[in-house]
Write a structure and sequence with these properties.
With 624 residues, the protein is α+β, with helices and mostly antiparallel strands. The chain is 24% helix and 23% strand. A hairpin with a 5-residue loop joins strand 7 and strand 8. It is elongated and about 90 Å long.
């Protein structure tokens, strides 16, 4: 675990400016200084090279600047001061006199806790003292097979809008532990992924425009409360992933932007600095101090909050220079991402580093020593876009777009992929997954079940955004809770039952995850049946008996007799159907079938089976 002392050595200063001080949070920020467990004072340290002077002000000075002046440590702009008081819980900011003589008030970039919005002060907070109870979980994680061979089913959620109290206020981290964890566990998800929890001023930003990178948002409680939530997740064998934004930051006046009156954390030039699409500023990844800040932040969440992985947001925005036409690669950014991933995996080889990358940049999940960026997962945005485009066509038109579902298998093994049906696809007029589906009411639900089933059976790990599990009809309304009342209606209650069984089916069948990143785990039976819009393929595990045969019908035509080439002869049983009556389907289901010597699909043996309308049927060799 990263050390947490409060001395500033010449070597640490050198590493900070070089960009390799990966525990810079142990030095910068506000720290209680203790001797023999007794607090003797509070030390503040900040980086502000362009400042004429810096002082610490806060609730302990009646917000009068200048009372506690900071001393400049070096020419590169590190300032520090020691106040011989125990200031735990006190509000504070840095009062910075700029080179032009202006006085600006800034929150601490390294603060561990923040005042509840809309207030913006930092809070002196002692992270120590929480008693963790997740030791068995951590032992199990160390002993397990690598994640590449295991199920990974992520439930992505936005805490603000998962559920709210009757008065519209938010649950606390501890209340989420009581309500969210059993809900996720019952539905068969292996991990929770939280939209950004770094402190941010605007609820509607979803957390992607941050101001306090070391400060878990105070909307839901204290840092210890968040530790409690993560601890409880681990005790129920649920991993916790955090959405993380190292590319750009919020421009509110109290935050990182123009921190000492001039560009500091951001690029100097307007063209490189300004993220015009999001109204944010891009981190200057050429600066060693910024790299120390960001890489330290990643390790901070790993070590102090024991999260299991980071989803790195908007990698395309990082690896290419902003506002460049044509797009031009930023060499500082690729170096930063490689350094970041090396530092993370050196600390914890089982950590998950997932790139949300919409580009075709090669080797995103290739190790750094082989020339890659070093992530272990990449979101498959191409698969998601093609699949959702295909599903929005009326069923009788899909035969003209058959390639949209076969194309993903051309590149499925070029990276280690996560298949995301995420928040970005159900907001801003894009409609919910259910509402995207064409046709009558029953057809929408049937296609929604088929969509999720295809997600589960396609090679790659899985991610589903909250609300999709019970087929919410409206798109994501991020200012209010999910439409929980829908579960009082049969169609949505049956959808919830379907998701539970589907996710638990995924976990139970090794063919759906053991060879996710190995071509031997997938084989087409028939990829060319465009006329009927039927796709059939095999998923394999390490044992022959784990083999699954998957048939997907993307039209509303059912078949009582459909011949399909089987991987090998013998008796087969249907182990899953999206058309079951208890799921809301037409109950066009099978039980068992015996292969016949009737060649088809380049196989010597075949089965005569039923195919449900707008549904999926999955088969497995019957036990002898």
């Amino acid at each position: 675990m990263a050390r947490m002392d409060h001395t500033i050595s010449d070597f640490d200063i050198h590493l900070f400016h070089e960009g390799t001080l990966y525990n810079s949070h142990a030095i910068f920020g506000a720290h209680l200084v203790k001797q023999k467990k007794k607090v003797t004072g509070t030390r503040f340290t900040v980086w502000a090279p362009h400042a004429k002077s810096v002082s610490v002000t806060g609730s302990f000075t009646d917000w009068e600047p200048g009372k506690y002046e900071m001393t400049r440590v070096n020419n590169e702009g590190i300032w520090t001061c020691f106040i011989d008081q125990d200031l735990e819980g006190s509000l504070y900011k840095y009062a910075i006199t700029t080179a032009g003589g202006d006085l600006i008030m800034k929150s601490d970039p390294y603060a561990f806790h923040s005042e509840l919005r809309p207030q913006t002060a930092s809070v002196v907070y002692d992270l120590s003292g929480y008693k963790w109870g997740d030791q068995l979980y951590r032992q199990r994680v160390r002993k397990r097979r690598p994640i590449y061979e295991r199920p990974l089913a992520i439930y992505e959620l936005h805490l603000n809008s998962w559920k709210q109290k009757e008065d519209g206020s938010y649950l606390t981290y501890r209340e989420y532990a009581d309500e969210l964890i059993p809900y996720v566990k019952e539905r068969g998800f292996t991990h929770i992924e939280l939209l950004p929890l770094t402190e941010h001023p605007l609820d509607a930003s979803w957390g992607y425009q941050g101001t306090g990178y070391f400060s878990p948002t105070s909307r839901f409680g204290t840092p210890h409360d968040l530790m409690y939530f993560i601890d409880r997740c681990h005790q129920e064998d649920i991993g916790v992933l955090l959405d993380w934004v190292p590319g750009h930051f919020c421009k509110d006046s109290h935050g990182l932007y123009m921190f000492d009156g001039q560009p500091l954390y951001e690029y100097d030039s307007f063209n490189d600095r300004e993220n015009l699409e999001w109204g944010t500023a891009n981190f200057n990844l050429a600066k060693g101090e910024v790299r120390s800040f960001l890489i330290s932040n990643a390790l901070y969440w790993m070590n102090f909050f024991r999260i299991d992985g980071l989803r790195v947001d908007a990698v395309a925005n990082i690896i290419y220079w902003a506002n460049s036409e044509p797009e031009t690669a930023n060499p500082y950014a690729t170096e930063f991402l490689q350094e970041l991933n090396k530092a993370v995996f050196n600390e914890n080889p089982r950590f998950l580093m997932m790139a949300e990358d919409s580009t075709d940049w090669p080797g995103v999940t290739k190790p750094v020593h082989e020339g890659g960026l070093g992530f272990n997962y990449k979101w498959n945005m191409g698969w998601m876009n093609d699949l959702l485009d295909y599903m929005e066509y009326p069923p009788f038109e899909r035969r003209h777009h058959h390639h949209k579902l076969t194309f993903s298998l051309v590149y499925a093994y070029s990276e280690n992929y996560i298949l995301p049906l995420s928040h970005d696809e159900v907001v801003h007029g894009k409609r919910s997954l259910l509402h995207k589906m064409p046709g009558e009411y029953w057809e929408k639900f049937a296609q929604w079940r088929l969509l999720l089933s295809y997600l589960i059976t396609h090679p790659g790990k899985k991610l589903l955004f909250m609300g999709a599990e019970f087929a919410q009809f409206d798109e994501w309304k991020y200012v209010q809770g999910l439409d929980w009342f829908l579960k009082d209606y049969d169609s949505h209650a049956q959808s919830d039952v379907f998701t539970k069984e589907l996710m638990n089916f995924y976990q139970a069948h090794k063919a759906l995850h053991e060879f996710d990143h190995d071509p031997q785990g997938f084989e087409w039976i028939d990829a060319d049946n465009a006329e009927q819009s039927i796709y059939s393929f095999v998923r394999r595990g390490k044992r022959k008996s784990d083999t699954l045969m998957v048939i997907c019908n993307f039209t509303n035509v059912s078949y009582d007799h459909f011949r399909i080439g089987a991987p090998f002869e013998g008796k087969w049983e249907e182990v899953f159907s999206s058309d079951r009556q208890d799921f809301g389907g037409t109950n066009h289901v099978n039980q068992t079938a015996l292969t016949e010597e009737n060649p088809i699909h380049n196989r010597k043996q075949s089965l005569d089976i039923k195919i449900p309308p707008l549904g999926i049927t999955i088969w497995k060799p019957a036990k002898k």
